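One thing: could you explain this record?
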Amino acid sequence: METCGSCSSNELPKGCKNKGVCGIGNCNSKLLVFDWLSDIHPPIISKNQTQYIEVRFKDDRKDFYVNDSSLPVTIGDMVAVGTNSGHDVGAVSLTGELVRIQLKKKKAKVEELYKVYRKASPKDIEVWQSFRNKEAKVMLEARKIARALGLQMKICNVEYQGDGSKVTIYYTAEGRIDFRQLIKDYAMAFRSKIDMRQIGYRQESAKVGGLGSCGRELCCSAWLTDFRSVNTAAARYQQLSINPQKLAGQCGKLKCCLNFELDTYVDALADFPSNQTVLDTEKGKAFCIKVDVFRNQMWFTYTNNAVSWYPINIYDVKKLVELNQKGIIIKSLDELQEKESLKIDLIEENNLNRFEKRSKSNNKKKSKNRPQQRKNTNPANEKQNPNPNPNQNQKQNQKQNQNQKRRPPKKSS
């Protein structure tokens, strides 16, 4: 049985035409696109029709290229592609008609795409790997130069072009940076063309990686490719406390996972009354303080007594609001909750010793019941002897009288 040499799977992935030696790093990478057209025979391609391929480079960078020479390439092949200066080396990540769909989806301009030169030769791969081995040292040196100039920036990553003619330096910064002296120092130190690219903090965490507060790998480094803006409104819809320490991820921004279930919460809250709902009761005005989406409940409390909360079903809330609109004052929430006995005292619920009190009371009840259980341990004997021996009771009474006579009288003070 053939196995994959790029990942830990024991079986060869479907659609792999390189017999498990693709060299792209990982079959479960977020950059791989599932080719759902692999088992479908494509229509006959005319000679005049241009072919496009998708090429993957370091980290999460991908781009589209024109295969005008109709090279027979498959997913995982290393190819040399054109750039604005020299050539670069990357791995083919997608071919066929699915590339055209991706072009339309990402709105790429076909006229600005570069061409595929050839399949990468062993010499091209050797030169490319030699420059990739230098990237860690170059990044450390670039940080030292930026710190010596006193620039408020952070160098996140460094990427060499396949032929080593250009170095792309990724950085993060809060404000504008003056690169006039910095680029001169970089060009003198690295002896190549310098390209500075500013990225966001989310892109930085995707490149660095790590574990989130949920204990799993970061979504941005595992599978998430597009970063959407996250607002505090997403936390409010999900009834989360606005705590920056809990809502922020490793990038310092709001967590991307706040958007995952946002649409579901918005649809569920469409049936709920407004959070500003106020009920006029005989005891006073009660306002909404909490919404439970999962149980379809709204929690109300009085303005004078904010300790006790009362959960009411949303359909009952709508009926109570209709009564208030008609000018009818409803009963107090205490009377409404007596039928369901759902009143909750927040002081008692927040008390840390509430479980100990319950256990102690239960132990007392058990201790009171123990002697009764011991008396009735042999119900069969009671049935056999319904009339106990009266002589035994007389003997016990005589012993008690003798003990009382032997005891000396108490001295009066």
Summary: The chain has four domains: 1-120, 130-199, 205-269, 278-349.
